[in-house]
Specification:
alpha+beta, four-stranded antiparallel sheet, 5 helices, 29% helix, 15% strand
């Protein structure tokens, strides 16, 4: 009797290979393309660094999970076996160093070459979209689109002829170009 368990804590904590559970998890084919594009671990650089404790595929799967589900970093499921701060740390380092933008550009070129097109986009389509702001969105980050009569934010997109995103921009402080229409009330006259 007692609280003795037949398993040690290491056996319970995380399996050696995490099974694919989410649609955002990388397939073996995707990982074969993506892995060589990832930045070199710090421990392999001439400046040196600490060896990474977490498998990179799990880190990438966790980042893709957050991107796919639009959830908070703190909501990364525990079955990834990685603390959310670690996942966020990798994402921030890769974004700040420009590695994510470089990976996106290289994958974009690979797709274009695979489809028999020039590796670099020759023609670009620019578009913008007004998104209505929720009540929780602060007034200092919203603007008014007089053409569409929407109070919210505007995002801009640059895509190639196939519709693949080249750049996305959402300005932090939109500029109001047209004032909202004055509302009239018969009781106020």
């Amino acid at each position: 009797m007692g609280s003795e368990s037949p398993f040690s804590i290491n056996e319970i904590r995380a399996p050696a290979v995490r099974e694919r559970r989410y649609p955002s998890d990388t397939t073996d084919a995707e990982w074969a393309v993506l892995e060589p594009l990832l930045p070199v671990p710090a421990c392999e650089l001439p400046t040196g660094g600490r060896p990474e404790k977490r498998p990179r595929r799990k880190v990438v799967d966790a980042i893709r999970y957050v991107n796919d589900n639009g959830c908070k970093w703190r909501a990364v499921p525990v079955d990834f076996g990685i603390p959310w701060r670690t996942v966020y740390g990798f994402f921030q380092r890769w974004r700040a160093s420009g590695d994510l933008a470089r990976i996106h550009a290289e994958l974009h070129q690979m797709v274009r070459v695979h489809d028999g097109l020039n590796a670099r986009a020759v023609a670009v389509i620019l578009d913008s979209q007004s998104v209505k702001g929720a009540e929780t969105v602060g007034q200092d980050t919203r603007g008014f689109d007089g053409g569409k009569m929407i109070n919210g934010r505007k995002r801009h997109l640059a895509v190639d002829m196939r519709g693949m995103a080249l750049a996305v921009m959402a300005p932090p402080r939109p500029h109001t170009t047209v004032s909202p229409p004055a509302t009239s009330c018969s009781a106020c006259d």
